[in-house]
Amino acid sequence: MKVDEAVLKLLSLDPAKTTVSSHGGGGMSSASTSRISTELADGRTKNYFMKTGRGEDARVMFEGEHASLSAIHAAVPSLCPNSLGWGQFASNPATSFLVTDFLDLSGRASLLGGPSSSSSSAKHPRPPSLARKLAQLHSCPAPVPPGRDRPAYGFPVTTCCGDTPQDNGYADGWAEFYAERRLRFILGRSEASNGPDAELGRLVEATAGKVVPRLLGEGHLGGAEGIRPVVVHGDLWSGNASRGRVDGVAAFDEYGGVPQDVVFDPSACYAHSEYELGIMRMFGGFGAAFWREYHELVPKTEPVGEYEDRVRLYELYHHLNHHALFGGGYRSGAVSIMKDLVRKYGKG
Question: Which intervals of the chain are annotated as region Disordered (predicted)?
Fold first, then answer.
């Protein structure tokens, strides 16, 4: 298979020494994934990972994934592969591509229970666990967006959670962002996919209008100090985390090149750190040791007594998103969460 000229130019590769072949991967339901292999001057082989897709949906998704990987990698270089660029094929501009470091997941093992099981040696220390890396990510403050004088909630480009292109327009307040850019937004996507639903609409409006201000409102969430936006992965279910390595990258080489806990297929935004935890709880797979280590490093936000309800509120978005994408039983999960939260916090 021939490597497109736009990809060769992006990576500065010699076409005579470069090949591309099919390779398993994830993300967009209609994306194809490939391995690019090139021979270096010293005779070694270097690999890259590429996603391709056709149409506007692919273009939007790859732009968002590039920005997401770049933001995460800048904060914690060993947490995800770095994105090297995205664009359109020179031979077929309707086809978009994304190229990243090649993340070798061969021989991967379960990592979600707690501290990293990668061994240490006299020469190299044990690499940090997923809990520690995620805590580092969630401690990295968001940058100040152009035209603003302080960090805000949102993201500079659209990102896709599954196949859903999300509204990441900036907001100064977290409650406003979550109510408008997540709950009310995804209700619109659900109605477009599944048709009007009076009960669902009423519950989403009650949740966005009453529960969200009550649990996430400024002056309440985080106590007197409040909260600050940090970068989150945004779609961190257990299928988007594993153990792997990237050859030739300092953040992996300093630990002897052994596989480390990594994440991929992100849908990043600048958010409340606990927003990350909703989908992690929804599908499970992260054990008690993981949660214990993570919260030793990132304590639960005040009021701690409302932590479980906040995580359920954040989980709600993913039930609604899955309902918008797939229909079926995800509606009942969303309705159950909203009824409980509205009953508890929706008075007044």
Answer: 18-37
Q: Are residues 81 and 230 in the same domain?
A: no
Give the tokens for residue 141: 């403050």
Flag the least confident range among 127-141, 176-190, 200-214, 249-263: 249-263
| C-alpha–C-alpha distance, residues 298 and 48, integer Å | 34
The domain that holds 229 is classified in CATH as 3.90.1200.10
Known catalytic membership, residue 235: yes
Percent of the chain with pLDDT over 70: 93
Q: Do residue 275 and residue 210 come from a single domain? A: yes
Between CA 47 and CA 35 the distance in angstroms is 7
pTM over 0.70: yes
Torsion over CA: 54, 56, 57, 59 (sign): positive
**DSSP-derived 3-state class of residue 84:** strand
Confirm whether 117 is domain-assigned. Answer: no
**Of the residues 235, 261, 265, 309, which is catalytic?**
235
Structure confidence at residue 110 (pLDDT)? 47
Provide CB contacts within 8 A for 127, sequence distance 6+: 78, 116, 118, 255, 258, 260, 261
Structural domain range at position 16: 5-101
How far, in Å, are 23, 44, 84, 88, 290 from residue 8 at the CA level? 18, 18, 12, 12, 41
Segment 248-307, tens digit of pLDDT = 788 888 888 889 999 999 999 999 999 999 999 999 999 999 999 999 999 999 999 999
One domain for residues 179 and 83: no
Q: Are residues 139 and 211 in the same domain?
A: yes
Q: How many domains does the chain have?
A: 2
User: What CATH number corresponds to the domain at position 39?
Assistant: 3.30.200.20
